[in-house]
């Protein structure tokens, strides 16, 4: 269980998150909706302890969590595996080649392995972003705009992966602008507006 109590975060005089409380169960997939600048990314960063909160509490029953932002997590001159090794080292983790080979095939990146990441298309950068997440150990994944820049096939692959992670009792909270195409995989969705969280029916 992840429980948020009375969370607030401001930047100077701008209140981005205003006294928010919510709970997330293990094994849930949750969509966080909102307009640009509404605070979706700030909320994810607060939950992942990337930025300090002003007030409130964030309580986990398991401290294994990661945040993957909407910008490519890459060193552009490196290839996929080299970049992944660098990211894993930040988390004091080592590459599992069996896991790497499995997911690079599922994500359709097996023919891109020797190409420097700076030459990747936006869609392949998204696939690489999820590849990073899949090669890290975590119970809670906070991921910013995972479905952007994907074609229909890519969206379908990501949906299948998310649902498989759910069966492993992993919790995924992601932001999105295009909820209609991925609503079927979500246990619930919530919108952020004027610093408040609203649960959607």
Automatic annotation (TrEMBL):
Keywords: ATP-binding, Nucleotide-binding, Transport. One of its GO terms (molecular function) is ATP hydrolysis activity. The keyword ATP-binding applies. Residues 2-201 form the ABC transporter domain. The keyword Nucleotide-binding applies. Pfam families: ABC_tran. This is ABC transporter domain-containing protein.
